[in-house]
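Quick one: structure for this chain?
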Amino acid sequence: MQLRKDPITRSWVITGDDPAVVSKDEGGCRFCADSKAQVQVIASQPSLDGGPWSARAVVHPQPVFHVEGDTQRSGEGLYDKMQSVGAHEILIENPKHDQQLWESSDAQIEQFLQLAASRITDLKHDRRFKYVTVYKNYGAGAGQEFEHPVSELTATTFVPRRILYELRSGKEYFAQKERCVFCDILAQEQRQALRIVEPRGDFLSLCPYAPRVPYEIWIMPRTHEASFERGITSKQSLAKDLAALLRRTLKRVLTVSDAFHMVLHTSPNTLYRSPLLGYWKTIDDDYHWHLEIMPVLPGKAKSYTFKEVYFTPVSSETAAARLREINVD
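Got it. Here's what it folds into:
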């Protein structure tokens, strides 16, 4: 696999001639606790009920990024390319094959969140990796890869384009007002109370003012923190609150769609501080980690002329009101 940079959009694209098709396991799921299949275990969280583990990280069976080697950055005329060095892990959310994240207890979800935080912390010690994130694709419409309840983690030698947009906007806003734009969004949303779906301890779930898809929903900490892994480990109650709100939010999402994408937006690796990248200097003050959940609604798409101009037939205010009405107890 190789990474190529689009010289216009500045996006990195993974390309290669060998499609990553994971073969079916013989004799059961490779991620179940009693599986005999060979997986490379990286880390585990202790069990809550006497089982072998509650959540664990393993190397992806056919990773897109590989820890070994050097990026071998090079140019081909005006084009930039490099090897797909990084990390690609599967975060097994629990040992049970038929227990999804929103069907788990808050304590079990908390174990999964702690595992994600520990893996991000560990990978950020590698100065080659500029960005580490966790994401989940659920449902056929979202490109779900495995039947077992899992999320995925990637560490990359570049910062994804959408995160760059957020970093630059956060830096510019902070330079003008000496405030975090995300904190100001939270303050206004709490004052207006139009798009908030549910508060839970130090966290809020809300529908963003300008959604990309119907019923898009974010989970944000009310207390300013740039880094997810610092944020949920700084106080014991934070992971507990986040686990409860995440479970309830996913239940709400699944009443409007049977598929979704969930992505963690967190600060890049601040051990990698390049003088050319100015947004690293004030990042602890101007960035604010959050989870973005985007339901996949079949038949709701509408064509548009200009790419990156999104259309959604459901306003944020209507979406939040409908999601609030859903009983998730």
